[in-house]
Structure formats: structure tokens, C-alpha cells
Amino acid sequence: MARPIVVFDTNVLVAELAFPDERERCFALAEDGAVELVVSPALLREFAAVLDYDRLPLPAGRREAAVERVARFARIVEPVVDLDVAADPDDDAVLEAALAGAADLAVSDDAHLREVDGVLGIEVAPREAFLERFARSAAHRAAPAPGGAGGSADEPGESNRDRNPEGRPDPDDTR
Question: What is the DSSP letter of 97?
């Protein structure tokens, strides 16, 4: 079975990559190869612009690294159509990338984008529904049991990848 192709709306990327305490559940699926992430230059620009908001807790030095990280794991597609179907033009960019990348699914927590679910054959689902669908392939990263494989009894929800060889949280981790 081929890997599902997905587009993550900027709100998904920001929620998972701009808040150091937020678990990277959706993005981890792309990094692990469970799904193929597609993104357009317009979505990368929007992500970079949102990361520049002063109210985000991500240190300035890690903002550019977050955009580079997405570009490294995503297939960058160039949309060939300009859509005008969503209430917000930024939402049209998600649909354009989904069409250009032949995506199976667009993942968004934006209610306006989810209102156009099914338009042009593009399914739009919230993060939690996406994660439920792919829970088996991501079980070790999305919901580790405290003290179980991929987790830590003293830091629930933290994977072993988050720790340095001495078993302490890695302060240099850029996720």
C-alpha cells in the first residue's frame, strides 16, 4: 500500500513546531515516513510569516530551522491552478498544494477550511481525526504509555529521542 500523501495547513505546523511543549504528532508521521508530506512555496512562506509573530514562544533562532525542517521532509510542489473556493485566500493555498501534490488529505484545524471538505475531491480533516486514522502506524510516537516503549516514566509524553545519552532532556533538540 502506498504511503498517504498529505498537506498540513499552517495551523498544524505552527501548533506542533512553534510551541516547544506541544507534541509533534502529525509532523512525526512525515518524519517517520508513514505519510508523504507535500507543501508549496506559498505554504512555506505563510509558515515563516506566522513564525515571525512575536507572541510565539519559539526562540527566534529556531524559527528559520523550523521552516527548513518542513522543507527537508516535504515534497515541494508548484500549484498550477489558482483557486477561489475557501472563505480565506490562505486556505485556497492549502487546496492548491493538495491538488498539485495529488494529496489524499489536507489536515487542518481551521473551521473555514474544513467547510470546503470534499471540494474538488480533496478531503479536509482536523488533526485529531487524521491521527486517529493513522494511530496504528504512529502509536509509538503519538500516544506512548508512560514508561513504555518510546516514552519515559518520569516525563509522560516524551520520547527517548528527546533525551541525551545521559537520559536527561536534550536542551539542543530543535523540534
Answer: H
76-85 long-range contacts, CB within 8 A, separation 24+: 76/38, 76/39, 76/40, 76/41, 76/44, 77/38, 77/39, 77/40, 77/101, 78/40, 78/41, 79/40, 79/42, 83/120, 85/116, 85/119, 85/120
The residue ranges of the chain whose pLDDT is under 50 are 138, 140-175
pTM metric for this prediction? 0.75
SS3 167: coil
Distance CA 78, CA 150 (A): 36
Residue 27 in contact with residue 56, Cβ under 8 Å? no
CA angle 3, 6, 10 (to 5 degrees): 150
Q: What is the pLDDT, as a whole number, of residue 160?
A: 33
Question: Which pLDDT belongs to residue 136?
Answer: 61
Residues 24 and 20: their CA atoms lie apart, in Å, by: 9
Q: Which residue has the cell 480533496?
A: 122
**pLDDT score at 66:** 94
